Amino acid sequence: MKFFDLHCDTIEELRKRNEDYVNNTTQFSVRDIDKFDKAVQTMAVFVPDSIRGEEAVRFVDDYYDYLNMQAAKYPDKIGIVEDITDIDTIVFQKKWAFMRSIESGACLNGNLDNIDHFASLNFKMLGLVWNGANELGSGPNNDTGLTEFGKAAVKRMEEVGMIVDCSHLNDAGFEDLLNVSEKPFVASHSNVRACCNHPRNLKDEQFKEIVRRGGLCGINIFSKFLNEKDERNKEDIFRHIYHMLELGGEDVIAWGTDFDGEVTNAPEVNDPYRIGLFAEYLEKMGIKKETIDKIYFDNAYRFFLKNVK
Ligand SMILES: [Zn+2]
Looking at residue 234, what is its pLDDT? Predict the structure, then answer.
């Protein structure tokens, strides 16, 4: 069983609930590591839209320390990816490889030097926005595109080798990103609008651009992004994957579960081990083993090793 997940909000939930990575009631835990051959989890620091300015920089700095402290409690089960090649060493030791990311460029406080700062702390990916507007652009709550600072931030991130994450970005911002970016980017936790008409999901032409540019798109298991009835349904996860495959997405589909962002996930997939078992369902539905391996691990692994500096 292999698993590479591009997004979860677990670190924030652990703090809220005063739990840790083994003794917890969260969806993500590291307890089942012995069931995996290789396992990589991206740990996102989510900056709420209520936090801006210097406070947003300090907020992420503080979560950096908190994540390190939580991971250090279980050195036999968790390794943090500092250099991207650490993934190999950590998974070889049969531990969870944790990769750091940030959700919302509000953490930059409008200063490009903060990209270098967070890159030096080995955050490998940055989501430009959350749902509201920040210094870079806006999510679906607003229809303005990328700001001049947002465009400059994309360029600086590409220079330092930090991956641009377009999940949450609105359509105008996505269009601007296509014009400004020169390197492949990621939609870490977004589905497709053709299967569930929600502004957080990608239009077919947006998904096809990600394919054309060699990016990644992580399947989100939150029910609101799976179907318009907001139901927990594993068949819907399959529909999104199948549609992405029809659009030529075999080499870009990954998982972007959004564990612990919302609790209304399909019960068949609401922890990493159950996601692993979901592979059997995909196989039963006629997805080739090789394609399943790509979705579960190989696409994301290849992408990050190639594109992160
Ligand atoms: Zn999100």
Answer: 87
Q: Where residue 107 sits, what CATH number does that domain have?
A: 3.20.20.140
At 139 the three-state DSSP class reads coil
- Give SS3 for 260: coil
From the CA of 72, how far away is ligand 1's center (Å)? 26
The parent domain of residue 117 ranges over: 2-307
176 contact partners, CB below 8 Å, separation of at least 6: 137, 145, 146, 150, 151
pLDDT digits (tens, 9 = 90+) for 239-274: 999 999 999 999 999 999 999 987 666 677 889 999
Find the 169 Cα to ligand 1 centroid distance in Å: 10
The DSSP 8-state label assigned to residue 278 in this structure reads H
Distance 93 CA to ligand 1 centre (A): 30
Ligand 1 centroid to Cα of residue 286, in Å, is 30
pLDDT less than 70: residues of the chain: 263-266
Structure tokens at 77: 């089960």
Give, in order, the Cα–Cα distances in Å from 119 to each of 144, 162, 177, 182: 27, 7, 20, 19
Each residue of 13-60: pLDDT tens digit? 999 999 999 999 999 999 999 999 999 999 999 999 999 999 999 999
Give how many domains the chain has, as a whole number. Answer: 1
pTM for the complete prediction? 0.97
**Burial class of residue 23 (count of CB atoms within 10 Å of its CB; 0-12, 13-18, 19+):** exposed
Q: How many A from CA of 10 to the centre of ligand 1?
A: 12
Euclidean distance between CA atoms 131 and 34, whole angstroms: 37
Give the pLDDT confidence score for residue 263 in this predicted structure: 64
Q: CA 263 to CA 280: how far, in whole Å?
A: 23
Half-sphere exposure of 205 (CA within 13 A, CB side): 4
Token digits of residue 202: 């990608």
